């Protein structure tokens, strides 16, 4: 099982931050008594939709239809603030972290959500994907096809992830970058640093047999 | 920002349950100014989790826990300290 550093989640992740802020904003707008699985599904689809449609491989969803269903069915009656999570959304949080563990990708992303929604039989996600006849296996097959048609992109690490990978302190990684011992690049127009797997491994030197001190 | 310890009784919880609760804690934290999850410790035998948060108040922590559907049994305002500055003063035990 991959150990996801959950206390770090969301600190630098615009997707999670925006998605959950949109969930709260939508719950407040609708005066919802609870933040539900259906509402999370709507916010997710809307977040990734282009021209009103969510499309990914075998999936095409008209987001307005989901909006109408949520607006008509969501339980109302809030005190004005963001309400608590419902039972079905609590259950979904379990599926979501399982999906992260299963995937082997440490950072929670849009695809983890999609697979978790596909693997639920409850609420609107269960109904929509049931009516579309789309399963998680079909989406996984689509992803494999797309990945095999593309060159493999090298994985990139932040200084914090690079430090965890090498089991050293992040200050050490930053000092190696400053001194030129470790190559790093900046995201265009930003301060954020990224280090490739190849460059990370370049700081590892082979040892002579018997030299384990 | 004040620091708080939070005891959460979680009888029968698994690592997967804690991961899910951790995700909910993160997902529900974005709209609380000043609320920050510092760290957590799982007392597996005692079936509880001890969390350290920065927050404006105990009420803010209580509200966040209620929204995230995470138990919140005891909240105490605490102060951080560690062994920095003491380590050199502690003599090593005699050899043998």
Can you offer a commentary on this structure?
Chain A is mostly helical and 213 residues long. Chain A folds into two domains: 144 residues, Clp, N-terminal domain (Double Clp-N motif, Orthogonal Bundle), CATH 1.10.1780.10; 46 residues. Chain A is built from ten helices and five strands; from the N terminus they run ααββαααααβααββα. In chain A, the strands form two sheets. A three-stranded antiparallel β-sheet of chain A has the order 3-5-4. Chain A has a two-stranded antiparallel sheet with strand order 1-2. The radius of gyration of chain A is 21 Å and the shape is elongated. Chain A starts with 13 loop residues before the first helix and ends in a 12-residue tail after the last helix. With 96 residues, chain B is α+β, with helices and mostly antiparallel strands. Chain B has one domain: ORF SCO4226, nickel-binding ferredoxin-like monomer (Alpha-Beta Plaits). Chain B is 25% helix and 28% strand. In chain B, a hairpin with a 4-residue loop joins strand 2 and strand 3. The longest helix of chain B has 13 residues. Chain B is globular. In chain B, 28% of the residues are buried. Classes of the chains: A mainly alpha (213), B alpha+beta (96). Chains A and B meet through helix 1 and helix 4 of A and helix 1, strand 2 and helix 2 of B.
């Amino acid at each position: 099982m991959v150990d996801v550093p959950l206390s770090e989640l969301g600190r630098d992740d615009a997707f999670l931050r925006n998605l959950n802020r949109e969930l709260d904003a939508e719950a407040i707008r609708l005066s919802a008594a609870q933040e539900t699985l259906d509402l999370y599904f709507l916010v997710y689809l809307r977040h990734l939709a282009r021209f009103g449609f969510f499309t990914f491989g075998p999936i095409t969803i008209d987001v307005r239809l989901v909006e109408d269903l949520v607006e008509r069915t969501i339980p109302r009656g809030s005190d004005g603030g963001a309400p608590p999570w419902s039972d079905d959304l609590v259950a979904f949080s379990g599926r979501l972290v399982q999906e992260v563990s299963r995937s082997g990708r440490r950072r929670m992303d849009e695809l983890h959500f999609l697979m978790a929604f596909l693997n639920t039989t409850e609420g609107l996600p269960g109904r929509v994907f049931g009516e579309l006849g789309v399963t998680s296996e079909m989406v996984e097959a689509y992803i494999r096809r797309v990945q095999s048609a593309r060159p493999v992109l090298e994985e990139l690490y932040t200084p914090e992830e690079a430090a965890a990978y090498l089991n050293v302190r992040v200050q050490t990684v930053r000092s190696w970058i400053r001194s030129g011992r470790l190559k790093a690049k900046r995201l265009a127009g930003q301060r954020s640093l990224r280090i490739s797997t190849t460059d990370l491994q370049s700081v590892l030197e082979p040892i002579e047999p018997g030299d384990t001190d | 920002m004040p620091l708080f310890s939070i005891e959460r009784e979680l009888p029968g919880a698994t690592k997967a349950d804690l991961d899910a609760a951790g995700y909910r804690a993160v997902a529900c934290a974005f709209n609380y100014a000043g609320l920050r999850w510092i760290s957590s410790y799982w007392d597996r035998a005692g079936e509880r989790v001890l969390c350290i948060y920065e927050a404006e108040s105990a009420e803010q922590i209580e509200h966040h826990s209620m929204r995230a559907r995470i138990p919140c049994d005891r909240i105490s305002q605490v102060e951080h300290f560690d062994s920095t500055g003491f380590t050199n003063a502690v003599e090593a035990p005699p050899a043998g």
